[in-house]
Design goal:
The complex is a heterodimer of chains A (332) and B (327). Chain A has 332 residues and is mainly α. Chain A folds into two domains: 44 residues, no CATH class; 220 residues, MetI-like fold. In chain A, helix 10 packs parallel to helix 11 and helix 10 runs antiparallel to helix 12. Chain A is flat, with a radius of gyration of 24 Å. Chain B is of the alpha/beta class and 327 residues long. In chain B, 32% of the residues lie in helices and 23% in strands. In chain B, the strands form two sheets. An eight-stranded mixed beta sheet of chain B has the order 6-7-8-3-9-10-12-11, sandwiched between helices. In chain B, helix 4 packs across helix 5. The longest helix of chain B is centred in the middle third of the chain and has 18 residues. The chains are: A mainly alpha (332), B alpha/beta (327). At the A-B interface, helix 9, helix 10 and helix 13 of A face helix 2 and helix 4 of B.
């Protein structure tokens, strides 16, 4: 197990490196002269050249990339923000708690709602409760979060005036709408996965064995059915957490939350490339860490997986490509 | 047979799927005395397992429904018992060993936990005591007690079946239903499991319903036999009645299909045709389309049970003449 863990942690290095190189290249080939944009209307060829030299933008691609990596690895330095002239690391670390808070609240809400309704739905398959739950889940999944967010603001902030329309520090009520906005679609996805995964195990022989022991129905469901249905559910929660970080971009903009997502959008608009790079790297790192956690969780849930870790050691390869897809999505 | 532990009367269980009605069990009756072993013999799909599930109150609903009948266990009709009452009976008084040991154990719980679960449900004891009992049960079925903390995937098929047996016997049940306990096992393990079950039957004084399509198993362990065809008992009697004096053409076919060691034959005897589909059962005697002695009357008239002795019942009008008996 320990050996497997070390291996997985080492695997994170090439994954992150790949992400950095891809994002760096994309920014490099993006059209527009950074210095010219930064200087605005007053720019002259001389001032542009001077700024290029100052920012190191006149160097060849590989030199720029090499210098970026060197600073990152040796000094944990993500460079200076073009806009604010402050270290990107500071910019991100001041905003990271907000984004993490939002994502965690959303995933907790989505998991609670999704898992509970998913279980009920599977147990009451084709009954009223199931039909209602699957219907609501479908609506939840189909609704774009930004639209839902705007609707919520219209209803509860503008119309009823119950909740503030933007997140205010120290006011927990202001987090309710962003959490719902971000969590609804994920709750629907988790609900559907829980339902189908439960339906897979619900007719298994060992469930019948449990009933034949005289076990009460609730325990049959939780101890024998749900525990066996957990693996796909955990997987979906892990993947969804990654996409929540990306989904937070829109949500943070709607509710004016000062998080990484908002930083990313603002930075892209202002061509503040060091900030874009930094934000993407952070999101990628969080995704890989969550993937790792999910894999570790597997072995606690299913003893059969734990025993394979002791022997075979080919698993990490599969996860890599997945992560890079996510990064590309974030970058846009 | 002065005392009766279990009496099943005219049990009818149908499955309803996609507008079709599958008649799995059609008026099945039998009784069982304490410490007696009855063998249910019949083809796949004859309704043996459904009957067993009916006794356990575990017929999956939907699609299954018990439409008629009585299951009287220790003087009480189980079909009228509430779910809470049934839960007390299941696992303690009546237990069941399921067909496939590979899938009958929960893969994410240790075998010790799974045995202790049933012990805890029916006894007032601490988790520790239940675990000790689980180890004891494992030892009894011939598995080292120390393997309590292992998971099902670490056991072989035969050992899993023994774990399933340990679960079924953990609360000293009055009635054990064994649904083809040896079918999924290879021959050497089969013998071990049968030996074990015979020993347990003697030691624990449990009544047993043995579901099987292996007449060899029946001969080894049963006191009496019920031959089941299309959800009905077509012939029942003591081991001797059935093995030496079977009268029903279907029973005859079953015995004829056992290869004889002394005789040199090219082809095994088969009963012609297939088991009728439970959604479309023949009228009259359900066996008549496959019966070599069928007359027109068989196709239209439901046969009445013929009692040849106190123990021997045959569901065939010819039985009285002794016509179906092989010379």
């Amino acid at each position: 197990m320990l050996k497997y863990l070390c291996k997985r942690i080492l695997w994170m290095i090439p994954i992150l490196l790949g992400a950095i190189v891809i994002v760096f290249s994309l920014i490099y080939i993006a059209p527009g002269n950074t210095s010219a944009i930064l200087l605005g209307d007053s720019a002259t060829p001389e001032t542009i050249a001077a700024l290029d030299a100052e920012l190191g933008l006149d160097q060849p691609f590989l030199v720029q990339l090499g210098r970026y990596l060197k600073n990152l690895v040796l000094h944990f330095d993500l460079g200076m923000s073009y806009r604010t002239r402050r270290p990107v690391m500071t910019e991100i670390l001041t905003r990271l708690p907000n984004t993490l808070k939002l994502s965690l609240l959303a995933i907790v809400l989505a998991t609670l709602i999704g898992v509970v309704t998913g279980i009920i739905s599977a147990v009451k398959q084709y009954k009223m409760a199931d039909t209602v739950a699957t219907g609501v889940a479908l609506i939840g999944v189909s609704m774009p979060p930004f639209w839902l967010g705007l609707l919520l603001i219209l209803a509860f902030a503008v119309g009823l005036g119950w909740l503030p329309s933007t997140v205010v520090k120290g006011n927990w009520k202001s987090w309710i709408m962003p959490t719902i906005t971000l969590g609804t679609a994920v709750a629907g996805i988790i609900m559907r996965m829980t339902r189908s995964s439960m339906l897979d195990v619900i007719r298994q022989d060992y469930v019948r064995t449990a009933r034949s022991k005289g076990q009460i129905e609730f325990k049959v469901i939780m101890r024998h059915e749900f525990r066996n249905a957990l693996i796909p559910i955990i997987t979906v929660i892990g993947v969804q957490f990654g996409s929540l970080m990306a989904g937070a971009v829109l949500c943070e903009n709607i509710f004016a939350i000062n998080g990484i997502g908002k930083l990313l959008v603002d930075s892209i608009n202002k061509k503040d490339y060091p900030c874009v790079m930094g934000a993407v790297i952070f999101i990628a790192a969080i995704c890989t860490v969550i993937n790792l956690l999910v894999d570790i969780l597997y072995s606690f849930i299913d003893p059969r997986i734990k025993s394979t870790y002791k022997g075979v050691k080919k698993k990490a390869d599969d996860d890599e490509s997945e992560d890079e897809d996510e990064e590309d999505a974030d970058e846009e | 047979m002065s005392e009766i532990l279990l009496e099943v009367k005219d049990l009818v269980i149908h499955y309803f799927t996609d507008g079709e009605e599958a008649c799995a069990v059609n008026g099945l009756s039998f009784d069982l005395a304490p410490q007696e072993v009855i063998g249910f013999v019949g083809e796949t799909g004859a309704g043996k397992t459904t009957t067993a599930l009916g006794i356990m109150g575990l017929v999956p609903n939907p699609p299954g429904r018990v439409l008629n009948g009585e299951i009287i266990f220790q003087g009480k009709d189980l079909l009228k018992a509430s779910e809470a009452e049934m839960r007390k009976i299941r696992g303690e008084k009546i237990t069941m060993i399921f067909q496939d040991p590979m899938t009958s154990l929960n893969p994410v719980l240790t075998v010790g936990d799974q045995i202790a679960e049933v012990v805890l449900l029916h006894n007032k004891m601490s988790k520790k005591q239940a675990m000790a009992r689980a180890m004891e049960m494992l030892e009894m079925v011939g598995i080292p007690g120390a393997r309590c903390s292992e998971y099902p995937h670490q056991f072989s098929g035969g050992m899993k079946q023994r774990v399933v047996i340990a679960i079924a016997l953990a609360c000293n049940p009055e009635l054990l239903i064994a649904d083809e306990p040896t079918t999924a096992l290879d021959v050497t393990i089969q013998a071990q499991v049968l030996d074990l079950m015979r020993k347990l039957k003697e030691d624990l004084k449990t009544s047993l319903i043995m579901i099987t399509h292996d007449l060899g198993v029946v001969a080894e362990i049963c006191d009496k036999v019920a031959v089941i065809y299309a959800g009905e008992v077509v012939e029942s009697g003591t081991l001797k009645d059935i093995f030496t004096d079977h009268r029903h053409p279907y029973t005859e076919g079953l015995f004829a299909s056992i290869p004889d060691l002394d005789e040199d034959v090219d082809r095994l005897h088969v009963i012609k045709g297939l088991m009728p589909s439970p959604t479309d059962l023949p009228t009259g005697c359900k066996f008549h389309p496959r019966c070599p002695y069928a007359t027109e009357r068989c196709a239209s008239e439901r046969p009445k049970p013929v009692h040849l002795s106190d123990t021997h019942m045959v569901l065939c009008p010819r039985a009285g003449d002794g016509g179906a008996q092989k010379a």
